[in-house]
């Protein structure tokens, strides 16, 4: 063998590249005509087989080396832009320089052809070592195909695999791997932008079944599983249908994106719907019709995945030979699973369907339901009709599911998965798989509701007390907490009907509670919570919590401490159940402040006592003594601060301001201090300076130029005319150590303010891709406050960098004085509220001009 061995020339590489391109174009043209996904996937695999084989010959690879297709390519399926995974089997641990060079050139030429190559070069021994350490490697090798090269070496490779392979260990490893994958996607197939390959209910769930079936010697086709009795003929047809659908989705995604793309993101949903020939209806966009079809397929896949893996697992555990232990006349325990005594149990006794979920809650030793029980539940959903729902036994069983000391979340999810929940509450069935294009919910309506129920339930569990100490304490003291689980179940049940879903949902909740025999107090509580479930977050995030009237009015709306506590628990759970991006520590603190003040008011305190002004001052003094400040050192500064300041800032914040400013309350030089936020990631920045023209605008511009988003802003002017402004800012693009920029901000910003240096306006930020497809029409509202002294400016707009600067600059141009800013960001949606004043606002013409200018500048 010599270094001068023949290699392909440029003309030969170009010819192969042309062959690939023409072959791919023909496959796509044929697919657009016949829509046969299997034909496309297998055709592309054969096309690549031929090109790889020709190149192998052109590179003159020696006959003792073997080229093996692995993974999806080994299975004979190649999507339009999928990776081509290959294994080069080497005959010896230490190939000579010539052989190593030939293999490297071969791989390089594959990249030149435009193929995305995933490759490994190993000996058989190395393959065995890698597969023993990584179940993913073993999986790819199970689906291998010899393309060319040494047949004896490939046979030795297969022999070693099956000698060293343990099917039962592989089964458990793949189940554990699937569980980890599910956790990455929050255990739901119903995310608004699912991954059709990796998300629960995606193609990977089907592949897991095939891998495990192959390892167990049960075959690689759905018909093989049917012959083995693992699935019914109907389920085999369902599997074929959902597999074809998901293949079509992934193929279309690749063609639409022009690259490998497995996420069904907002950008492509409309195009995907067109590719499937779907059109909009009166109530839904074409993309929503498409996604509901997707969710139905994903749900079917997760159901069948559970059934099949459980049946295969039973074979390994030899559950069929395990003695069953009877529970009652309908159920037994077989191998730690709840099992029906025969396949006709639910037909003979329909109430047993709800009883099955109750038994799962009552028997801690059960690890799940048997496959035939789940299958019977799925088919039995058709037995849940109006007569079933009227049966007192069924009504009592359904409510009892919520009253059990454990298992509510698991069983409600199982009930939704097998459509028992939607059959029993038809209103819930209508919102299953319904999308929410509000840009802050990341789940479908039904999954959001179940997330909220889960969150409320966690407040009642001691093991989560460290996460939510106040919530846990409140829940422990709350009588009949199961009523809150039902309120959570109904709070968004009327979404998508048109109109106010809070009002519409009240009727559903009232009817349910009365039919199920709730006492009057609980009926009224559930109905009230459904009606008011958005109220507390709106007050906390949009109104001035330092205003006694705000607290008084909110407490009056709640009426009783039980209602207040229930609304606080539900609101906390609801916000946390929308999206990880929506919740933050500042929202939590606003809700807690509103709850605490309102509770004190309901317990008989005056508004001033409820807001804790005197107590707050004393607590601040204690903090100052702790830091070593002598008594009364704070008096000079505090004499310039009015009551509103002490109400609007918390104890820790007042103590920090005082420590920084007590010795320089009358300084002429601006003081800027920053520290890591004690509540939320980011920085807390304090600015103290003799008031300047357009100060707030300049500060917003500075933070925007730094790339920071403003989470919170408090504007205050002292009795001596000093501005004492506080901001909480963070960098949305990085989780950097904010301590590194504290000195920079303190010195740079103070210098700019001292010298009245102009701060360049920030550039307009880019909008997110979600907003491009689901734009938010800005809304501006300017109304006098309850006292008629100032005005409340409410703005709804697409969030983007520099948004607060845009608003502040517009207000300044119109001569509007800004007193407070309440920043509320809900995903991609900003809902900000400002307290403003100006003589010009009494003039309707100037007010209209202000609103028009704001609307124009808020459009993206």
TrEMBL record:
MF-aspect GO terms: [protein-PII] uridylyltransferase activity
Taxon lineage: Bacteria, Pseudomonadati, Pseudomonadota, Betaproteobacteria, Rhodocyclales
Domain HD span(s) in chain numbering: 445-597
Function: Modifies, by uridylylation and deuridylylation, the PII regulatory proteins (GlnB and homologs), in response to the nitrogen status of the cell that GlnD senses through the glutamine level. Under low glutamine levels, catalyzes the conversion of the PII proteins and UTP to PII-UMP and PPi, while under higher glutamine levels, GlnD hydrolyzes PII-UMP to PII and UMP (deuridylylation). Thus, controls uridylylation state and activity of the PII proteins, and plays an important role in the regulation of nitrogen metabolism.
Gene3D superfamilies, per the entry: 3.30.70.260, Hypothetical protein af1432
Protein name, UniProt field: Bifunctional uridylyltransferase/uridylyl-removing enzyme
Domain of life: Bacteria
Domain notes: Has four distinct domains: an N-terminal nucleotidyltransferase (NT) domain responsible for UTase activity, a central HD domain that encodes UR activity, and two C-terminal ACT domains that seem to have a role in glutamine sensing.
Family label: Belongs to the GlnD family.
């Amino acid at each position: 063998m010599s270094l001068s061995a023949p290699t392909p020339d440029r003309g030969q590489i170009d010819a192969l590249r042309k062959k690939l391109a023409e072959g791919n174009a023909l496959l796509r043209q044929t697919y657009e005509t016949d829509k046969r996904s299997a034909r496309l996937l297998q055709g592309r695999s054969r096309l690549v087989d031929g090109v790889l084989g020709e190149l192998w010959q052109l590179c003159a690879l020696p006959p003792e080396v073997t080229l093996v297709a692995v993974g999806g390519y080994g299975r004979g399926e190649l999507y339009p832009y999928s990776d081509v995974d290959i294994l080069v089997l080497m005959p010896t641990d230490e190939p000579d320089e010539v052989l190593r060079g030939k293999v490297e050139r071969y791989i390089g030429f594959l990249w030149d052809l435009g193929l995305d190559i995933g490759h490994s070069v190993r000996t058989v021994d190395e393959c065995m070592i890698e597969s023993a350490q990584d179940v993913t490697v073993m999986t790819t090798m199970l689906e291998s195909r010899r393309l060319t090269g040494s047949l004896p070496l490939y046979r030795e490779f297969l022999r070693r695999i099956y000698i060293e392979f343990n099917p039962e260990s592989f089964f458990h490893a793949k189940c554990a791997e699937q569980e980890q994958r599910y956790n990455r996607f929050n255990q739901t197939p119903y995310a608004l932008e699912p991954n059709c390959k990796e998300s629960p209910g995606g193609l990977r769930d089907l592949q897991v079944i095939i891998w495990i079936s192959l390892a167990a010697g049960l075959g690689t086709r759905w018909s093989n599983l049917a012959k083995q009795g693992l699935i019914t003929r109907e389920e085999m047809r369902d599997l074929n249908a959902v597999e074809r659908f998901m293949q079509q989705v992934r193929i279309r995604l690749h063609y639409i994106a022009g690259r490998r793309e497995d996420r069904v993101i907002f950008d492509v949903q409309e195009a995907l719907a067109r590719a499937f020939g779907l059109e909009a209806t009166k109530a839904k966009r074409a993309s929503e019709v498409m996604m509901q079809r997707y969710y139905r397929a994903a749900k079917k896949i997760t159901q069948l995945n559970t059934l099949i893996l459980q049946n295969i697992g039973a074979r390994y555990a030899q559950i069929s030979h395990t003695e069953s232990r009877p529970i009652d006349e309908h159920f037994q325990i077989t191998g730690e699973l709840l099992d029906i005594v025969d396949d006709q149990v639910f037909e003979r006794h329909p109430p047993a369907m709800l009883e099955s979920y109750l038994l799962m809650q009552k028997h801690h030793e059960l690890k799940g339901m048997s496959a035939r029980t789940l299958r019977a539940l799925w088919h039995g959903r058709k037995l849940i009709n109006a007569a079933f729902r009227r049966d007192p036994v069924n009504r009592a069983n359904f409510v009892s599911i919520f009253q059990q000391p454990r298992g509510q979340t698991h069983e409600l999810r199982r009930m939704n998965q097998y459509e028992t929940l939607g059959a029993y509450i038809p209103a819930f069935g209508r919102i299953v798989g319904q999308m929410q294009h509000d840009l802050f919910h990341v789940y479908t309506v039904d999954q959001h509701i179940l997330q909220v129920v889960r969150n409320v339930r966690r407040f009642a569990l001691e093991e989560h007390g460290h996460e939510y100490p106040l919530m846990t304490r409140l829940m422990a003291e709350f009588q009949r907490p199961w009523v809150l689980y039902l309120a959570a179940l109904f709070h968004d049940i009327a979404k998508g009907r048109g109109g106010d879903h809070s009002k519409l949902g009240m009727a559903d909740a009232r009817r349910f509670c009365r039919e199920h025999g709730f006492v009057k107090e609980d009926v009224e509580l559930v109905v009230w919570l459904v009606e008011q479930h958005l109220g507390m977050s709106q007050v906390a995030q949009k109104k001035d919590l330092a205003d006694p009237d705000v607290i008084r009015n909110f407490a009056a709306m709640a009426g009783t401490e039980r209602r207040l506590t229930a609304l606080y628990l539900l609101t906390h759970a609801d916000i946390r159940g929308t999206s990880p991006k929506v919740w933050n520590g500042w929202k939590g603190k606003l809700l807690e402040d509103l709850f605490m003040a309102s509770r004190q008011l309901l317990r008989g305190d005056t508004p001033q006592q409820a807001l804790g002004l005197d107590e707050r001052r004393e607590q601040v003094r204690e903090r100052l003594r702790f830091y070593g400040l002598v008594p009364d050192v704070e008096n000079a500064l505090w004499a310039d601060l009015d009551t509103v300041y002490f109400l609007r800032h918390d104890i820790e914040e007042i103590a920090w301001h005082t420590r920084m400013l007590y010795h320089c309350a009358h300084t002429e030089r601006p003081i800027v201090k920053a520290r890591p936020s004690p509540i939320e990631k980011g920085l807390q920045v304090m600015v103290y300076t003799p008031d300047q023209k357009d100060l707030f605008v300049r500060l917003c511009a500075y933070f925007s130029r730094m790339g920071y988003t403003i989470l919170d802003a408090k504007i205050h002017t002292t009795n001596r005319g000093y501005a004492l402004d506080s901001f909480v800012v963070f960098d949305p693009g990085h989780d950097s150590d904010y301590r590194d920029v504290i000195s920079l901000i303190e010195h740079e910003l103070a210098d700019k303010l001292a010298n009245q240096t102009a701060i360049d306006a920030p550039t307009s930020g880019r909008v997110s891709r979600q907003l491009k497809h689901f734009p938010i029409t800005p809304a501006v509202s300017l109304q006098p406050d309850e006292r008629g002294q100032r005005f409340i400016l409410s703005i709804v707009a697409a969030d983007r960098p520099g948004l607060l600067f845009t608003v502040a600059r517009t207000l300044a141009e119109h001569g509007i004085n800004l007193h407070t800013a309440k920043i509320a960001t809900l995903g991609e949606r900003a809902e900000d509220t400002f307290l403003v004043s100006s003589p010009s606002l009494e003039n309707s013409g100037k007010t209209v001009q202000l609103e028009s200018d704001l609307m124009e500048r808020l459009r993206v």
